[in-house]
Each structure stands twice: as structure tokens, then as C-alpha cells.
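Table S2 (text version). Query chain:
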Amino acid sequence: MTGDVAVLGAGMHRWGKWGRSFVEYGTVAARAALADAGIDWRQVQSVVGADTVRCGYPGYVAGATFAQALGWQGARVTSVYAACASGAQAINTARSQILAGMADVVLVVGADSAPKGFFAPAGGDRPDDPDWVRFRVLGATNPAYFGLYARRRMALYGDSPEDFALVKVKNAAAGALNPNARYRKTVSAEDVAASAVVADPLRLLDICATSDGAAALVLSGMDFARRHGVSDPVRIRAVSTVTPTYPKTVLDLPDIATDSAAAVDPFPHTFRASIARAAYEEAGIGPEDLSLAEVYDLSTALELEWYEDIGLCGTGEGAKLVREGATALGGRIPVNVSGGLASFGEAVPAQAIAQVCELTWQLRGTAGERQVPGARTGITANQGLFGHGSAVVAVR
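Corresponding C-alpha cell output:
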């Protein structure tokens, strides 16, 4: 398809809490991706940086920040911020530049140095910022609304804390096999149940941490890939960055109210479901074609919701999939074989790029002990604040 771009290289800096600059992490990931691609830094014609808003002024100009750290060589630069979807929008920007003929080779980098504790808005009084308002008016940290989502699933579908724990057990088992993961220890359902309650019904092991980390990709046009000697690369076939559609009738923090829709029928798909549907439509595939998926498991309960949103099962059936082992390594449709956020934690600008790194290694067949046999097609999905969301389809 004419919309394909090649993934020539993928690289990461291991996740953790290292206490160093995000620039250092991103530079390590970028150099790893360049080495993986066999591309000299001077061949890169464009750098797209996914921004971090918590790391001072250079974080807001991440494209130029990483270009300077690697050594000025004249490449054009772009910086992208879209909350948790920043990395995927950076990928989409790079893809657009390649397909428009503006660049043959583009480096995409995302990195973060996360603060201690739960994420909060940037400082200052901003009453027109819904993220600031939900903290000031509701006192709602991220885990608070993760817990509300979990309660909603329990009320509507009969999910249980035991179902949520199975997601953590599954992801921890995969993360134990991933050298880039922060947490590389298997856990049991009993371990989850014994961990501290954070936002009832979710416990500490149900919720992702905040982390430092970085991921990078080297993307190119298909003609360049062939000239570079790569005849069958992993290809990005679709990137969805759609916004919600009026009316939104389910509360979705940081917004603290739904749309008024008395005279309008609800839209037939939720926001998260529409993200995946747009990617499938662009790629010309459906959920039945997937070999694996990487989804944004901010909490164990939210992973179950993603199963439904990306079409792996019907509404309310997510818990059934995890109980059956369908989404585990060796299952019918493995999800988060990287270990997911459960094993990595959030490094916001890097996470969507890291998801595509995992798809790249899986589709190449180089993922080692966590390899999904015969993987040919994968999707990523995540949701950020303020109507940002993304899904990326990669094929081999």
C-alpha cells in the first residue's frame, strides 16, 4: 500500500527511576535505534521529538533537544505534545513527512524523567485547564479515576478484583522476560490481593507506576529501505489520532461532565473504540487479522476495557478473555507481551513509541522468550488527556 513506511530501527533505554535527564535517556534510545537500522546519524533528515512537559524548557522543544544532543547536522526538527498519545503523534508526523516527500529518513524519539508519586498538572492556577480543575474541584488523582472505571465495570459487567488481578499476573509474567522493563518479577494473584489499596477496588499492583525511560524509531520510505538493503521491513500501515465525537455520554476524566445530548442519539462507538476502528479502516484489516496487541494498561481494569475497544471481544466480555488465558503469551491473541505499563510504568512521551518498538521486534521474530510465533500484524492503542488518543497498525 502506498501509505506504508518502513521501520528500519527500534531502540530503547530501560525503564526505571534513574534520576537523570530525559535527554540522556532519549539519546541512548536514539543511538540504539540508529545502530539497529544501520543508519549513520548524518543520514537522518528529520527529527521528531515527543515532548515532556515536566522537565523544564528543553522538554517543550524535544525535537531540537535531541538533535542538539546527537550533534547538529542540519536536520529539520519537530516537537509534538499530545499527552500519552505524544509518541504516536510523533510517529504520525514522521510518517507524513516521509509520504509527502519531505524526508527519506526520520528519527522519532520520546523520553521522560517522571516526578515522584502520581502525575499532577504543571504548577500555577489555571481554571480553564480541565486537568487542573479535576485536581482542584474533585481531588482526583489518576488512580482515583482508574478506580472509578474499575467500579463501573464491576457494576455493569460483573467484573471482580480477582479478574483485575489476573491482568497483572499475565503482564508481570511477560515483563519478567523483557530486559527493557522496570519490573522483572512474576507475581501471583495473592500478591496483588495482599498489596495496599490505593483507589478501591484497585490495589498497588493494579496500577502502573511513573517511570523514567525512552524509546526511538528510525522510519523511512519503502524505496529508501530497499536501497538500504531491507527488502521486507516491518511497515507502519496506519496511524489513528482521531478525537471524540459528540455526544460523549460517559464521563471521561479530566473532563468532569458529559455532553448534553437530550436531543441527540448517542454516538454508536465510544471514543477509545473509535480510535481502533479508524486504524483498522485505514489499514484494511480487522481485529480478526491481529497476531498481538499492545494497549495502555494504566490499570488492570482499563486493559480489560481495551480488549473490547479494539474489537477482541464484545462489550463486557474482557474479563472472560483474561480468565481463559486468551490474551497471555501462548494464548489466542496475546496482549501486552512487552509486559505493558504494569511492568514498565509511564514515561509519557515514550510509551506509544515503545509500543511500536515491541511490535517491531515481534514482527521481526526477534523478541526472544516473549516471542509470539508467526506474528504478522499488530496494533497499539492508548488514550491521553483532552481528546488525544492513538492506534498504530504494523505489519510484516
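Notes on Table S2: The chain has 13 helices and eleven strands. The longest strand covers residues 5-16.
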